Amino acid sequence: MKFGKKQIWSIFAVLVFGVAVCLAGLHTGRTEDAVNMENAGATKDAADAQDPSGRAADAAGNDSEPGGAKVDFEQLKGQNPDIYAWITVPGTGIDYPVLQKSDAKDPYDNYYLNHQVDLSEGFPGVIYSQPVNRRDFMDAVTVLYGHNLKNGGMFSDLHDFADKDFFARNSQVIIYTPEKTFTYEIFAAIDFSDDLLPYEYDFTKNAEVQKHLEDVRKCEGNFRTEIELPEEPKILVLSTCYAGRDERRLLVEAVLTEEVLIAEVPEEPPAKGMEIARLEE
């Protein structure tokens, strides 16, 4: 069978069009997957690499009682001097070091949003604060950020506080620093906008702190109305994202209720060996 020139060109054009459609489909699919994984806080490989089973707790030697942990900050700082605290949320798998970029020039620096403890780039990042916050947790409002990962880990378990029963059973956040142990009582778990809180509110002014608390009370979520906040409270905000809702954030807010100097903490058996590398296995 012989084909004329017009027929040959028609067949060639159809083949080229088909290949183009296939390539476009592959590109679109990959782009959508990348966006979806970014919204969830990690690529699939990074999410699969996470261990939501509590390895961090074993590494730190933490228990669920305030003051019961012996975190080896000297060893941690040897691995990364930006580690300045450790956060534990009893009832969840949240048990991680807290970092802040020490040489950042931008007070709203988000370096650790996509960098690991070993400074390698990529997800899942770490639990971190911005330089706008002091490291001694003496600001009126301290905000800690962490990813919501598909396979758990980091701040994913904060979403458990959206459940009323879970919220009722679990109420504490504990922060360990080289000098002190801070115990916070959770008073709200809310659906909030994606506003950068330290930028939207001047938390150096108590009036702005009170304005934020008023905005919190207007949100949908779970509350402990029996908790009376002091006139000048010390608030800890834990912030994470939603999958597929870029414009919203889940905030768990807690007020400082106890502050204990490490020297005052009763002696406990030595902590288990701490290897941050285990967080990245």
What does this protein look like?
The protein is of the alpha+beta class and 281 residues long. It contains 7 helices and 9 strands. Strands 1, 2, 3, 4, 5, 6, 7, 8 and 9 form a 9-stranded mixed beta sheet that branches. Mean pLDDT is 78; it is low at 14-59, 61-68 and 269-281.
Give keywords:
alpha+beta, 281 residues, 9 strands, 9-stranded mixed β-sheet, 27% helix
Sequence-ordered SSE layout with sheet pairings:
Layout: H1 5-40, H2 44-49, H3 55-60, H4 73-79, E1 83-88, E2 95-99, E3 127-128, E4 141-145, H5 164-169, E5 172-176, E6 180-193, H6 197-200, H7 206-217, E7 221-223, E8 235-242, E9 245-261
Parallel strand pairs: 2-3, 4-8
Antiparallel strand pairs: 1-2, 1-5, 5-6, 6-7, 6-9, 8-9
